[in-house]
Amino acid sequence: MSRPVFFVTSEMYPFCKTGGLGDVLGALPVTLHKMGIPVAVILPFYRLTMNRHKVHQSYFGLPVGYPWAPITADAHKIVYNGVPVYFIERAEYFDRAAYYNTYKGDYFDNAERFIFFCRAALALIRRLNNSPAVIHAHDWQTGMLPAYVHYYKQYDPFWQNTSTVFTVHNLAFQGRFSSRLFDGCGLPPDAWSMSGVEFFGDLNMMKAGLNYASKVTTVSPSYSREILGPEFGYGMDGVLRERGSDLHGILNGVNYSIWSPENSRYLPRHYSADNLSGKKLCKDALIAELGMSPHLRNRPIFGFIGRLREQKGIDILYEIVPELMKRDIGLVVLGEGDAGFEAASMRFSQEYPGRYAGIVRYTEPLAHRVQAGSDSFLMPSRYEPCGLTQMYALRYGTPPIATSVGGLRDSIVPCPADDCTGFTFDECTGDAFLEAILEALTLWENNPQRWKEMVIRAMNQDFSWERSAQQYIDIYRSIGYGQETL
Ligand code: ADP
Ligand code: GLC
């Protein structure tokens, strides 16, 4: 048996999810396990996370020693689809109402919480005493982990043959904190440098991951190129350019056992590319569920699902709502996020009753029904590291209209190509977005046959996880996975 690969992450569906990170971690480790890779996952034990699952084993008193000695953590192991999942318990950090923030803002001690989590994860791995080939960390919450492994190697032979992979899911969120938090975080003074964790006088956890990991990956090939420049690099472009060939872009996959119109638990009727009649029923049901005008059964409905933040271009969509509403179409916007954007969605609902449905909530079942019940999916993101919702839309036969960036560019074949699966536009402006929507509307109205062919092509796209997982395996192998301890 090869030495294991440990995932350390702040989200994993179905235990905890705020966005695509949760979906990815809910699927990739399970896929790797099915492909014969010995994997395990380590997560924080958030409130509401567990209960439903049977604990196989607990580990008490793991020595963490942060931020004051002798603090400890406990861990509980369950098995999810064949994969051991360990939850790190420390009530004052994780037994809270939310994961990272409340409506008042981020938790003030997020740095402390996630430094603690990284160190506790390593303390657990040490206790398990099965030296991993690779530890795979994700986003700023676990960015410090590669730094710890780098320094632990210097005095504990247990870590000698452990490499790290750090995956960037969103470079804009970096975990940037006051330099004061470096004190006592357990890294030696020389880590406080430009090639370490320091960034313009602050502690930057994303930068720690980028600098210390054996390999850095991000979630689409296009994004891996975009972040080398100043526009999408968010100050990290120089650091990333220095990593050269250690940086890889691997497109996320889709867990079709959850996200497909054949399998979804949440649809009133299943359907497939061979028989689209269920999609019509899903549309009718969505219209009824959201109290939209019944005449929209014969008119196109455009759906949006996502965090109401500038990244997602929600302001671009709002800018053109009045113009769109001059046409006889429906618009469904499911999302929560910035308070101003949430309020605007509610206002539009009042202004255009029956035709604009704004749902300011986080609800997994409705997300499936909006995917299935819409005719086309809107995604005007300013940047998009990968984006999963457009890939879900493709499978649900809901051709996306999206900006031509990042993973959107890598997953959508835009009209008018013969093999098109959706629409893209270059400039993230209201005008360009409107033009793309009107192009889609014209096709929907004037050429139902071509529209249907596009829907079927979209549904037949295959973004299953196996291909992406194989690329991760290749990276693991290049840094020691499969080679036994020397
Ligand atoms: P990101 O991770 O940047 O938010 P992705 O497209 O990768 O974007 O993933 C978003 C995930 O979050 C999808 O599973 C999507 O369905 C889900 N999601 C976003 N907003 C909501 C919401 N309001 N209700 C339910 N699911 C949502
Ligand atoms: C981030 C990105 C999104 C990506 C997801 C999963 O949240 O914003 O584009 O799909 O991570 O990798």
Question: Which features does this protein show?
Answer:
single chain; 486 residues; alpha/beta; 9-stranded mixed β-sheet; 6-stranded parallel β-sheet; 20 strands; binds adenosine-5'-diphosphate; binds alpha-D-glucopyranose
Written overview of the protein:
The structure is a single chain. The chain is of the alpha/beta class. Helix content is 36%, strand content 18%. A nine-stranded mixed β-sheet has the order 3-4-5-2-1-8-9-13-14, with helices on both faces. It has a six-stranded parallel β-sheet with strand order 17-16-15-18-19-20, sandwiched between helices. Helix 4 links the parallel strand 8 (134-138) and strand 9. It binds adenosine-5'-diphosphate (ADP) and alpha-D-glucopyranose. Alpha-D-glucopyranose is lined by residues 19-21, 24, 169-170, 219, 252, 384-388, 407.
